[in-house]
Amino acid sequence: MRYVLMICAMLLAAVFCYMVLDMVMQTGNDVANSHPW
């Protein structure tokens, strides 16, 4: 049972990291597009 909890925790961490990275990339794109250069 411990292994299942560890796998679930790793999956949740991976999804969370993916969402954070996606949000950061989207913000970076918005900032880059808002600059005149």
Gross morphology: rod-shaped
Task: Count the E strands.
Answer: 0
Helix content: over 70%
What is the rounded distance between the termini?
55 Å
Indicate the multimeric state.
Answer: single chain
Strand portion, in percent?
under 5%
Structural class: mainly alpha
What is the string of SSEs from the N terminus onward? H
Largest sheet: none
Task: Name the poorly predicted regions.
Answer: none
Number of helices: 1
What is the alpha-carbon Rg in Å? 16 Å
Average pLDDT for all residues? 90
Description:
The protein has 37 residues and is an all-alpha fold. Helix content is 89%, strand content 0%. The chain has one helix and no strands. It has one helix spanning 2-34. The longest helix is centred in the middle third of the chain and has 33 residues, at 2-34.
What brief labels describe this structure?
37 residues, mainly alpha, 1 helix
Write the layout of secondary structure elements.
Layout: H1 2-34
Summarize the structure.
By secondary structure, the protein is an all-alpha fold.
